[in-house]
Amino acid sequence: MASPSPPAWADLLPEVLGEIVACLCDADVARLRAVCRAWHSAVACKLQDQEQEAMPWIVIPNGSFCTIGDTGVFFNRNSRLPRNVTCLGATDSWLALDCTDDVFRRTNSFDAYIRDGKFPEPRSDVKHEHNYLLHNPFYEKTVSLPELDSIAGHVNETFEIRKVLMRSASPNDLVAVTTNNDNCTIILCRPGKGSWVLPYLGVFDVAFFKDKLYGITRHEDLVAFDLADDDDGSPIVPNFKRVIRHPLADGEEDPWSWMDDDYDTDDGEESGDEAADSFNPDDGQLVPSDDEDGVDEEVPYEPKDYITTSRLLVESCGGQELLMVRRQVQSPPFHPPYTRKVELFKADIDAGRWVSVTGRDALPEGEALFLSRSFSKSIRVKRADGKWLTWLFPPKLVV
């Protein structure tokens, strides 16, 4: 007598399927949801019962990534991506990719040292072609950014894109880009519509907050940019204003005082495609990176160390506060660098000042900040920091 065949997986009870979901890693859960509508609903119900947010993944510049936690798994880069691609950063569930033959964008200096036997330096007299993409690895969707290509598609090796940030989950919405070049400090583009370039502002990190874009300088000035569209749907910045200014020392001049009143960009500023045609990123000065704002400080009874300070803008989990995270990294002689201090501030825009928050007031219980140079976020959690690593947050109900 033939033994009865085991029950089909599709006939599993939702309760049993939910217990299986609890034992899987993030990527396997994503695949499980894609099997059929019944499994999708069972997974969603299980996750809602657990009331947990999607934990982020860590993305490596070559496009590979790993999940974190007890069920962490490493995944190689997607073979369907172009071979010459590198990851510039992430914004929630989207990766910002750069396709180029520029070795400084595709390999780290250690890899180059192993290959050539010396640490190379980027050259300002050598240019490379770049093609920029937005890629969603969860839905296998890729969107090109021709507006960004037209501005930063042919640049020298010292040119660098620091951050690519999307205003929403839609790739057709507004995308903000910051660079290390003062001719195009901030680039706003809407795929298929147009672009807008803001130069000479000294802003190195930005964040969308409510209906504006905010940027921070190395002196901790906060600049608010009004956002709008022209008749063709191309992004424009009608005006901007410095809403928080850093305290001045006695006798110190403020070179940015002209931004304390609403600055109308129609008064002589170029916009859209005209700006893209006229701005040459290679003509501008390279402004110091957020992790290169270093000062030497004398520490009593210790050798003189090099200390770098970075400042990141983050929207709070509930979307009610704009936060600034100030991090100091100390690099002792002949020793690995370490985090010396991390401070958190809230923007009091009405009063025009940063308010320090510490202890229980820093973050509500159950919330955590995930910080990286290219993307930072505040999320609720139940229970890597490197210069070139970034966080990737799966869509809701994936894990």
From TrEMBL:
Region (Disordered): 253-298
Annotated Acidic residues bias: 253-276, 289-298
Pfam families for this protein: Beta-prop_KIB1-4, F-box
Span of domain KIB1-4 beta-propeller: 82-384
Cited InterPro entries: F-box-like_dom_sf, F-box_dom, KIB1-4_b-propeller
Gene3D superfamilies, sorted: 1.20.1280.50
Every F-box domain range: 11-43
Stored SUPFAM superfamilies: F-box domain
Name recorded for this polypeptide: Uncharacterized protein
Source organism per UniProt: Setaria italica (Foxtail millet)
